[in-house]
Amino acid sequence: MGRIIVFTGKGGVGKTSVAAASAVRGAADGLNTLLVSADMAHNLGDIFQTKAGGSIRKIRENLSILELDPYRLMKEEFPAVNRALSRLMDTGSSRGIGEDTMLPGFEDLFSLLKIKSLYESGLYDLILVDCAPTGETLSLLKLAEMLTWYMEKFFPVGKMAVRIMKPVAKQKYHVTLPDREAMDETEKMHAELVKLDALLKDRTVSSVRLVCIPEKMVVEETKRSAMYLNLYDYQVDGVYINRILPEHTGSSFMDRWSGIQKEYLKELEEVFADVPVTRIPWYPREIRGEDAVDHLCRDVMREEDLFRVRCAESGDWYEKTKDGYALHVKAPGMTAEEVQVRLHDLDLDIHVRNYTRRIPLPYSLKGCSLEETAVRGGELVAAFSVPDNGGDAK
Prior knowledge:
Blueprint: E1 3-8, H1 15-28, E2 33-37, H2 44-48, E3 57-60, E4 63-67, H3 70-76, H4 79-89, H5 107-121, E5 126-130, H6 134-173, H7 180-200, E6 206-212, H8 216-231, E7 236-244, H9 252-271, E8 277-281, H10 290-300, E9 316-320, E10 324-330, E11 339-344, E12 347-352, E13 355-360, E14 369-376, E15 379-385
Parallel strand pairs: 1-5, 1-6, 2-4, 2-5, 6-7, 7-8
Antiparallel strand pairs: 3-4, 9-10, 10-15, 11-12, 12-13, 14-15
Helix pairs in contact: 1-10, 3-5, 4-7, 6-7
């Protein structure tokens, strides 16, 4: 079984350097390793000082790099997916969506599908993904779940509507509805989305590692990112704190900064007490070129089993209670004041600041009532009472 590790963090904290050093370590361990850039501002080629691009390039034994190009992926590897999306939304007008046009907002979908395809190929023991800054990474990771939810909720209704309305839509409303082939392609796409979402949340395969520096704004964003990732049921199993100054620099100015960093280092290690935290010194030169990456790897990537699955417990689980069930959602750092929870039939909406996760509830909770919510011990707990005919939550 292969392994997927996603590296993310605030812009400019050294994500690519840490991902690259991890890749070098993986290759040295004899793992066939692929380092993938999912950030549109690619810099794998810069850090290794070699030519990269939209094709896989081997740069040393057991190590290859790839900079993802969503438009190229759409055209060359996933035309059926784009065709399904385009035909589903095509009204038949002269200004309809062409199959060579990428729908806005779907760039991430093709990057995710490529990562899934690479994993399923079985060619790589280790796939490391250098992602964009955290906000974009969260958008990337939650896309599969969001699209799957929409498909499951609306596609069956839409399919029935197309079947009923198609005979009259063109003649009466001058609208061409998707044909059977388009609907079949959409169903196949839905099946791929389900597999993709399952892969990203498979805690025996996939995890996220955060990269940060000991500065106030970065520390706060890192804590929020961990909370959001756990909210969406992605496991965070590593934190790298980059650019740490030595305690005694010989400069009163730098020593004051070292003292400030010490406070934030303590805070980060307390927040992530149950996650491996790695400290990385501030080097006198930038990490650029294979020699520099090798040096970083030797200094920092020394953990014996660096790529093991470190946290295998699911973030979402149900507990049987006296009156029904309680759903536990792991979300360290969340406070009761910032979370809003609403129940809509069999969907539970959890809104925290500017992010919302919609969790489909098991059918056995049909007709349930949301009795109360609480935040305790790094978890959001939602308690439901169920009708007398309620079954077991699954």
